[in-house]
Amino acid sequence: MLRRDRLFLAATLTAVFSADLYFILLPKLRSLGRPHSCSCGPGNLSLPRQGGLATPLLSNWTSVPLPDSATPEPADGGSKLEKLFAHTLYNIQTPSLGPEERLLQAEQLIEYYRRKVSRWERHMKLYSEAAAVANISVTEHEVTYDPDASWMKFHLGINRYALYSRDDPAVLQLLKDMQNMAVVSADYTQDEKALKGACDCTQVVKPSGHHLKLALKMKNFAKAMFKPMRQQRDEETPEDSFYFVDFQRHNAEIAAFHLDRILDFQRVPPVAGRLVNVTGEVLQVTHNEDLRAVFFTSPANNTCFFAKCLYVCKTEYAVCGRPDLLEGSLSAYLPGLSIAPRISIPNPWTRSYTFTGREEWEVNPFYCDTVKQLYPYNSGNRLLNIIDMSIFDFLTGNMDRHHYEIFTKFGDEGFLLHLDNARGFGKHSQDETSILAPLSQCCMIKRSTLLRLQLLARSEFRLSDVMRESLEGDPLRPVLTEPHLLALDRRLQKVLRVVQRCVRRLGEEEVITKDFIKATGKPQTATVGKRVR
Amino acid sequence: MLRRDRLFLAATLTAVFSADLYFILLPKLRSLGRPHSCSCGPGNLSLPRQGGLATPLLSNWTSVPLPDSATPEPADGGSKLEKLFAHTLYNIQTPSLGPEERLLQAEQLIEYYRRKVSRWERHMKLYSEAAAVANISVTEHEVTYDPDASWMKFHLGINRYALYSRDDPAVLQLLKDMQNMAVVSADYTQDEKALKGACDCTQVVKPSGHHLKLALKMKNFAKAMFKPMRQQRDEETPEDSFYFVDFQRHNAEIAAFHLDRILDFQRVPPVAGRLVNVTGEVLQVTHNEDLRAVFFTSPANNTCFFAKCLYVCKTEYAVCGRPDLLEGSLSAYLPGLSIAPRISIPNPWTRSYTFTGREEWEVNPFYCDTVKQLYPYNSGNRLLNIIDMSIFDFLTGNMDRHHYEIFTKFGDEGFLLHLDNARGFGKHSQDETSILAPLSQCCMIKRSTLLRLQLLARSEFRLSDVMRESLEGDPLRPVLTEPHLLALDRRLQKVLRVVQRCVRRLGEEEVITKDFIKATGKPQTATVGKRVR
């Protein structure tokens, strides 16, 4: 294991060195022969210059064109996304993984899958008999057992560094499967079932009638969470809405997956858009009588359904097809909790879910100092991961990150899952800088994250352009409206300015944490990742 | 009493004769000397011609200009509304009223008012002491005892024929008072209190979170029901919404009052628009802790509040000022039930308040024959009054008339109150002809109603024009958008076409019921009003 660590370290150092050579030294040489072309607009980061191989001169990052693209906008209209993903920074090799660094073992998952199939077959036999007696007609789809199914490969690919590798063909196939594959059953999610239709008037904010989501099972047993479209893409969240009662947006869920991939985090499970036939792909394939009971035909003759609990009383909360087709997001399920347990941990920067309450971080500017003392934020990368997450959430505008999840198997050094992103992209005209509190209060950021953000601030890789291009691949394109895409660029600049202010105050050394290393040690004895020059 | 009846009969006959002379004979004489100018557009009613003094030749009604206005559009741009109200049809004298025909006696109401004032004073004394102890600051407004208050006069003017007479200065003053007078207290309405915050999941449709209304008391003890603005005037009800979960619209409440007045029904209590300061005129003057508790400040720093029950859990249902000012409708309260009891009777043409249910009238085209056999629809004017109400509701597009109310004092011959009109004016682009079922299935209409509808179909008095002009007097102008105003004209034509089809099928004699008479007899022995030629 130690040997592998050393190999990884060497590979990483090589990559970092190449990146420095590529971006720092070469541009420097190029710029020697011509006048300084730095424009001083807000888009330019001008951190104090500090020399050194592994410390990029950040002021150059947004002003110097890449050697291989002399014009900021490629004249050939080539793919910015492809260029981005071909960039050195996006091609740092992952070390080969030992069994302990993979979430699941193949045998284990195949066994799990087999059990699922036989349980399904038993269930279908009983159900068909009961349905015949009760005179319920259910469309029966053939299911297939396919050990090469894309969802299996996705689950097997999850490791201690990320949910998937960006160019994994299995992930692309999984997206396609979620877009097209026949749905064999539909049901409420476990969350919804847990509510059991209970009304609780003392609950000020939850459950909200807006939590309308279903679990869909595909013919090869892939499972996806379906979040239906609740509002038009150009409808902004009303200014008086609290974030915790905001709609869940299917397009935010899709866009968040693409953004996470573009940031090279790979912490959001694959999400695809799909035009779901709510009659054929939900009503006629569900075996849940409760779910069947919430379907109705609207006065306009559209097929509609609403969620459980309070919502049973509320047609205002219903969603309707046109007449049966309804846009929605399909998020790939993670492996079941029985084989891949996760824990849910309160976000130290959680918000007060009341009308008037304020959390400590909102009133105490030195809150981070307290957090830094506390386990598990006092060692390892956890706090840096929280900061990554806050940047991600700030870019999407998601204020609803009350918890985060990690796989227990990877312990405290595991990456944070960025699940449930549907409350992003509600307002394009407003940047909620409070979401950045972890970054602005702690004044720390991973070097790898900062480098990628800086890359995405450059016109050659402009975040809005690569997002637009990436989202073009989704069947529900355009997933985001132009104002939302452009807001990403504006917010990215704001993130960089926060880093810039931190560096001015504390120095680069303090602020920009050298990562690209694998933290060592067991969860119980996690230590802060060593800085590498 | 009989004597007064006879006098009234004579007055009415004179009026009808004048109307006939004015509209039928004179235009006929005029049209003799020129080619037939009838255009055959959908706007023209062409009932089969039948001669006779009291049987207007309806085909002429919309094609022949009035003798006193040679051009359809007055060249002087004069007030169409004034001309309408100056019309003979709108100036049929009400008989002088005996005590039994008035809802209230002055002494009784004054006594009631005095008791209210002294109860208020006692309450305020106790409340101020308690508030001082609890450290609650409540704005105390001076109240005045004014036996000449406009609301007193309005209450005293209610009689067996109508809620008010159109040119009663007290009603105009009451509208002004509701628009401007200081609010001294605010509370939930009795309806809301009856819910007592109960959640009932078995209730599919009610209570809806959209029932957000408050009772406001003015400094002279006038009481008004405040319905706040829930949506913009140009937002149409979504096509998938059921009528029973539709928003209550403050502007519909205002517009319905004006329409009812223009139809000369006077069955809707006065309604005025007002920009209410929800902080100063609700929060700071309420003595109800529950109401105070539902106020909050939104993320956009606006003052918001929401309703009781389910809604306590639901900020989605909240309404917000900007930052404190909020548009709303103020509907004058009727006299308290203790002094003027009313009964609420199910509308025979009520709808099924479920997703799939259908009422008999929706499937049985001969439903009216059944209704006609049943008390109280088998005698008197009750069925004609229901038909009036259906025309009124069709014009506004209100599908939510499940009950109607009458004052018990006037028994079965009392007029129907058209209360609660906030579910009208939801869709301008759609005419819900099912609302007209009472008219189209029974094929009956009061002659007085038909004559006024025909008048309003003429360009000189075009309904949309007089409504626009009438609504101009409200502080929240424009109360209705142009598409909603124009929909009134289109719907009016549809009403007239339904009548026309009935007349073609059954003959004018059967369809157009001669009224303008006072039905005689006691409630128990009510008979169908005699037809008068």
Automatic annotation (TrEMBL), chains A, B:
InterPro entries: FAM20 (IPR024869), FAM20_C (IPR009581). ATP binds at residues 227, 331-334, 405, 420. The active site is at residue 400. Its cofactor is Mn(2+). Mn(2+) binds at residue 420. Keywords: ATP-binding, Disulfide bond, Glycoprotein, Golgi apparatus, Manganese, Metal-binding, Nucleotide-binding. It is found in: Golgi apparatus. GO terms for cellular component: Golgi apparatus. One of its GO terms (molecular function) is metal ion binding. Belongs to the FAM20 family. This is FAM20 C-terminal domain-containing protein.
